[in-house]
Amino acid sequence: MSETIEVFVNDRKIVLYRGMNVKHALIACDQSLYAAALAGQVRVEDENGFPVGLEGGLCDGARLFTVDAGG
Fold first, then answer.
1. DSSP states of the chain as a string?
2. Residue 53 to residue 46: CA distance in whole angstroms
3. Hey, which of 19, 36, 38, 46 has its CA 20 to 30 A from 67?
4. Whole-prediction pTM value?
5. Domain count for the chain
6. Which residues contact 55 (CB under 8 A, 6 or more apart)?
7. pLDDT for residue 54
């Protein structure tokens, strides 16, 4: 089993170590995305439109999207 997984944040491929979570994916993609999520400016959703917490786990091939939180 590989030590890394590939996930996608807003369709951008990110390679992370297995066991990292949503916040690590946001930071690896763009630190400002993580800051915006912490501030409540954006929320993170999975490919089906369900909300995902920053501490949420990831699996290989996971697709995450950041959307305006409307506030």
1. --SEEEEEETTEEEEEETT-BHHHHHHHH-HHHHHHHHTTSEEEEETTS-B--TT-B--TT-EEEEEE---
2. 10
3. 19
4. 0.92
5. 1
6. 21, 22, 23
7. 97
The Cβ of residue 36 has, within 10 Å, a number of other Cβ atoms equal to 17
Q: How far is it, in rounded angstroms, from Cα 69 to Cα 12? A: 20
70 CB contacts (<8 Å, ≥6 apart)?
none
The CATH number of residue 36's host domain is 3.10.20.90
The span from the CA of 5 to the CA of 42, in Å, is 24
- The β-bridge partners of 43 are 67
Domain that holds residue 43: 4-68
